[in-house]
UniProtKB/TrEMBL annotation:
Organism: Streptomyces ramulosus
InterPro entries (alphabetical): MFS, MFS_dom, MFS_Efflux_Transporters, MFS_trans_sf
Keywords recorded for this protein, A-Z: Cell membrane, Membrane, Transmembrane, Transmembrane helix
Coiled coil regions in record: none
Domain Major facilitator superfamily (MFS) profile: start-end pairs: 4-383
Name recorded for this polypeptide: MFS transporter
Listed transmembrane segments: 38-58, 70-87, 99-121, 128-150, 156-178, 199-224, 236-254, 266-283, 289-309, 330-352, 358-377
């Protein structure tokens, strides 16, 4: 494994910790600022919206400098935002700090995905992307539960100071281990934007919004759901987040392994399974053991979609992957924002703390429908291509006149 992938994973660890740790601390933050839990959920929504905005904005700005330098600058933004959150005197300042930190998120994973994919052979690209995202999943096994424990024991502000220090560690790791990557020759914003005219790129991003939104609809409100419905203690939330992180880790590795070979079947399986598990979560949330199993499965199925969705965007972007990759990371967080808002809305409407699970199930089912549509369109596009050489071949061409390239027209592989 190239050491540069380890450096990217370190940065991903810090970002993953700050993204998810707030979910385990929502009750404490809400009580400290005197706001309701659905209102505190805006810290998730605001972060996600910041990622959506920051992903294209920071990536566009980054086209003028080398990718390594841009990754280091992004970690600087991340560190500053978390320090602001730690010191925030009121809820508005806290939300501002979350947004500042989030501006780095999308571009970091977008540019990082391109760098990771370029470091390995073509048939190992999804695996390299999964290795970088391993930092995000390990954050949910170690960083998020530990941050939740520290926040509950010593105050949530201490947690955000620690997260800022993770940002410093990520910056130093990139500076030390990532090789200098020159700015791509001929990189033009117009060229990058052209990728969005491809309907398959748009469909992949829509799948990202809906599929990952399904995960966040449930997980954003995991603390009140597990304590007020399943009957767990506040301290048990830490271990439930560890379980979610283990699921994320396993799902990410599984997705990276199969995305290089059976990309679309992998998406069909994981999105369909996610919709079913989230639907059942409305029932299993009332039973401690079944609730814990559901948390594990939501993490595994949700993150098994990350490498294949990211790779599909890179494959379909046709030579202009950087902006498309970053925007797809923004799409993950657009789904987070949508789901966190919808989950808070159904709770505020009095439907209970398990109602967000129904929202998640519907979002995942919609993503599965888009995956089926995407595959159908791809099959239809191939039929004319496969038939064209036979239709165009002159009648007087003999077998000896046909080269192997003519006899076997190139058909792009279905990922």
């Amino acid at each position: 494994m190239p050491l540069a992938l380890l450096a990217l994973a370190i940065g991903a660890f810090g970002i993953g910790t700050t993204e998810f740790v707030v979910m385990g601390l929502l009750p404490e933050i809400a009580a400290d600022y005197g706001v309701t839990i659905p209102a505190a959920g805006l810290l998730v929504t605001g972060y996600a919206i910041g990622v959506v905005i920051g992903a294209p904005l920071m990536t566009v700005l980054g086209t003028r400098i080398g990718r390594k330098t841009m990754l280091m600058l992004l970690m600087g933004f991340f560190t500053a935002g978390n320090l602001l959150s730690a010191l925030a005197p009121d809820f508005g300042a806290m939300l501002t700090g979350r947004i500042v930190a989030s501006l780095a998120h999308g571009a970091f994973f977008g540019i990082g995905s391109v760098v990771a994919a370029d470091l390995v052979a073509p048939h190992k690209k999804a695996g390299a992307i999964a290795t970088m995202f391993t930092g995000l999943t390990v954050a949910n096994i170690v960083g998020v539960p530990l941050g939740t424990y520290v926040g509950q024991a010593a105050g949530w502000r201490v947690t955000f100071v620690a997260v800022a220090l993770l940002g410093v560690a990520g910056l130093l790791g990139i500076a030390r281990l990532v090789p200098e990557v020159p700015r791509p020759e001929g990189a033009r914003i117009r060229h990058e934007l052209a990728a969005f005219r491809n309907v398959q790129v748009v469909l992949a991003m829509a799948m990202t919004v809906l599929g990952f939104g399904g995960v966040f609809a449930a997980i954003t409100y995991i603390a009140p759901m597990m304590t007020r419905v399943a009957g767990y203690s506040d301290g048990a939330v830490t271990w439930l987040l560890v379980l979610f992180g283990v699921g994320m880790f396993l799902g990410n590795l599984l997705g990276g392994r199969f995305a290089d070979r059976k990309l679309m079947p992998m998406l069909f399986t994981t999105l369909g399974g996610l919709a079913v598990v989230l639907g059942l979560f409305t029932v299993t949330a009332h039973h401690k053991i079944l609730a814990a199993v559901s948390v594990l499965l939501v993490g595994a199925l949700g993150f098994a979609t990350v490498p294949p969705l990211q790779k599909r965007v890179l494959d379909q972007a046709h030579g202009a992957p950087t902006l498309a990759s970053a925007v797809n990371i923004g799409a993950f967080n657009l789904g987070n924002a949508l789901a966190a808002w919808l989950g808070g809305a159904v709770i505020a409407a009095g439907l209970g703390y398990t109602a967000p699970n129904w929202v998640g199930a519907l979002l995942a089912a919609a993503a599965l429908g888009l995956a089926v549509l995407s595959a159908a369109l791809e099959r239809r596009e191939r039929r004319p291509e496969a038939a064209a050489p036979a239709d165009a071949a002159p009648a007087d061409v003999t077998p000896t006149d046909v080269t192997p390239a003519d006899a076997a027209p190139r058909v792009p592989a279905l990922h």
